[in-house]
Amino acid sequence: MKNSLGFDRPKHILSASQFNRAFLDYMYELINQIRKFDKTKDGLMYLQSLLPHRRAMLYFTQPSTRTFMSFQAACHILGIKPSEIRDTATSSERKGESIDDSLRTFASYVDLIVMRSPVAGLSDRVAGLLDQTPRPVPIINAGSGPDEHPTQALLDIYTLQRSFKSAAGIEGKTICMVGDLKRGRTIRSLSRLLTNYPGTRLIFCSPPEFKIADDLRQFLKTKDISVEETTNFSAAIAAADAIYMTRVQDEYDQGGESKRVDYSTYCLKKQHLSSLKSDCVIMHPLPRRDELDPAIDHDPRAKYWRQERNGMWTRVALITILLGVDSHIVLPTL
Ligand code: CP
């Protein structure tokens, strides 16, 4: 049932599809409030006092730097004690324990499980399984194979909303997504979230081999947004209010197929900057390779380092919602 703000309070965070505009607007305000506590020692101590009685498991069995570290930092900010498994070689999965049994074991010890896995749909399955046990705990999908990365998409939306604050918000803007759109989970989750902003125009720019998957294409057709697919990088970036670059997801190759794709014309370089809109927002979920020239880093339109830090605050906000202390975030009077 929807709350008075117009959204279902999430029990888990599994997919970008579960969020509506009311939730996104609430999350935006909540993060802005949380960031005010970061300005003073007393404010930070207040945040740490919210959840010192809670424990979290960070179960990351696929490589990660920023998602892992930002969730770990978010736990520290809220006073939560995190545990971690980053390699199944160090857990009883190595002895043949099933993933289901492992996750049920974690739920015996912690109050929240954040999981990244190479397996699409695993977090949904685990959440369903734990919901049937006497000790269900919230699950956060921190990246599930080539499928979904909902918390990345939420931080991307926050970054876009802040960037377009004085330009009437996200609605009506042209967002150009570039790269391996077929296997990029950030693309899949962000595209879904952007359908909450009517009038938005999405330009998907990729080599023919990396076009968006058909299920996403069909989903977008049912929404009030405009969608264009192109291989013309120069035209696409020149039309964009925001450019979202992504790398080749070759960890999902089945036979080295990425090496046969010419990606060289889908790289944003310093020489492209003059053709972009003067207030264009340049984003990337990172990590990057050649597709995003480090020479761009000092351009004021480059927002990817800010995007990374926004990720930490977004994850703080999401944890406060899941563990029921978001109502304690009010303007600091400390
Ligand atoms: N953007 C992102 O998910 O980065 P990591 O793989 O480093 O966590």
Summarize the structure.
By secondary structure, this protein is an alpha/beta fold. The protein is built from ten helices and nine strands. Helices cover 34% and strands 13% of the residues.
Keywords:
334 residues, alpha/beta, five-stranded parallel beta sheet, 10 helices, 9 strands, 34% helix, binds phosphoric acid mono(formamide)ester
What would your notes on this structure say?
With 334 residues, this protein is an alpha/beta fold. Helices cover 34% and strands 13% of the residues. The protein has 10 helices and 9 strands. It has helices at 21-37, 41-48, 66-77, 99-109, 122-131, 150-163, 185-194, 214-221, 233-238, 304-322; strands spanning 55-60, 81-85, 112-117, 139-144, 174-178, 201-205, 226-230, 242-245, 281-283. It has a 5-stranded parallel β-sheet with strand order 7-6-5-8-9. It has a 4-stranded parallel β-sheet with strand order 2-1-3-4, sandwiched between helices. The longest helix has 19 residues, at 304-322. It is globular, with a radius of gyration of 20 Å. The two termini are 35 Å apart. The mean pLDDT is 96. The chain binds phosphoric acid mono(formamide)ester. Residues 64-68, 143, 152, 285-287 line the site of phosphoric acid mono(formamide)ester. Phosphoric acid mono(formamide)ester binds next to helix 3.
The bound ligands are:
phosphoric acid mono(formamide)ester
Helix content: 25-40%
Order of helix and strand elements from N to C terminus: HHEHEHEHEHEHEHEHEEH
Instruction: Determine the number of helices (DSSP H or I, runs of at least 4 residues).
Output: 10
Q: Compute the gyration radius: what is it?
A: 20 Å
Overall body shape: globular
Main β-sheet, in a few words?
A: 5 strands, parallel
Strand content of the residues, in percent?
Answer: 5-15%
- Global mean pLDDT: 96
Class of secondary structure makeup: alpha/beta
Uncertain runs are none
Strand order of the biggest β-sheet: 7-6-5-8-9
Q: What is the terminal-to-terminal distance? A: 35 Å
